[in-house]
Amino acid sequence: MESKNTDDLRVELMESSNIDEFLSENEDCFVNESISDVLNRLLAEKNISKSVLAKNSGISEVYLHQIFAGRRNPSRNRIICLCYGLGATFDETQELLKLCSSAQLYPKNRRDAIIIYGLVHGLSLFEINDKLFTEDQETLF
Questions:
Q1: How far apart are CA 120 and CA 110, in angstroms?
Q2: Residue 90: is its pLDDT beyond 90?
Q3: Which of 14, 71, 90, 116 gives 20 to 30 Å between its CA and that of 134?
Q4: Is residue 141 part of a domain?
C-alpha cells in the first residue's frame, strides 16, 4: 500500500462519513513512535549518554529518566532544551515537537526565530538562553 501524506489523510478524514472505517483503513499511517523511542534513537545516532544529555540540556538526570520511562511529558521548553542537549538539527527538533503535540518552531515569532538561529548555527543552550534574556524574551529555563 502506498503511504499517504498528511494532506491526503486530512482530506480523506474530512470527507469520511465513518470515523471507525477511516481509522481502520489508515492504521498504518498513524505515528506510533513515542518520545522515548525518538530520544533513544537520537541518543544512539549522536552517540551521547543520558548523563551528557542531562548536563547539556540543563535538565536533571532524575527528570530525564522519568521522560525516558514515560512517567513525564516534557513541556515545549524542555523538549527544545533536550534538542539543544542532543545537538539536534532543526528538522529533528520540529519532529520531536510535533510528536509531543507541541507547537513547532515558527520563524515569524521573535522568540522562536532566536531559538531556530541557535539550532541551525550550533549555538549552545546557554548561549541561546542569554540571547533570549538580552532580547527580553522568555528563556528556556
A1: 15
A2: yes
A3: 90
A4: no
CA distance 55 to 105: 23
Cell of 124: 549552545
How many domains does the chain divide into? 2
- Please, what's the b/e burial string for 83-113 (b: 16 or more CB within 10 A of its CB; e: otherwise)? bbbbbbebebbbbbbebbebeebeeeeebbe
pTM of the model: 0.85
Q: Is residue 41 a part of any domain in this protein?
A: yes
